[in-house]
Amino acid sequence: MSTAASLISALDGALLAGAWEEIILRRVVGTAPNQVNIDVACIARVDAATTEQLAAGIKATDLNVIISPTQINSAQWPGGQVPALPPFNVDQRIPRAGLTDKVLMRGQAPRAVDFVKPFMLGREPIRIEMRVTG
Fold first, then answer.
1. Residues of the chain scoring pLDDT < 70
2. Which residue of 64, 73, 79, 112 has the fewest CB atoms within a 10 Å radius of its CB?
3. Whole-prediction pTM value?
4. Structural domain boundaries of the chain?
């Protein structure tokens, strides 16, 4: 097993052993009226903003989300191919901050991805941290 696969497997185990929930990661592609939602269900750890984040001005309603790339890779989300030469071809598997990517959680309105921090080993994402707002 490669180092990346070992690290991803360890993260998957930690997520499943802890307090996890299923989220839907959604990317909206196209322009109206031809917009399409591309969804993938992911196992995630979801936490409230920390005391340090609140002191720094982050809203109390923002959430910190940690996901593994396992479900993204399995679903080949959002489609297409993995780029050959970053940084010119951005890895499409990494959620995007801004208006195109949303996180859906059971019983809540869709939340916008406000900040994304991917952890990479070479060209392989091994952990993705996000802050979602909404």
1. 80-89
2. 79
3. 0.89
4. 3-133
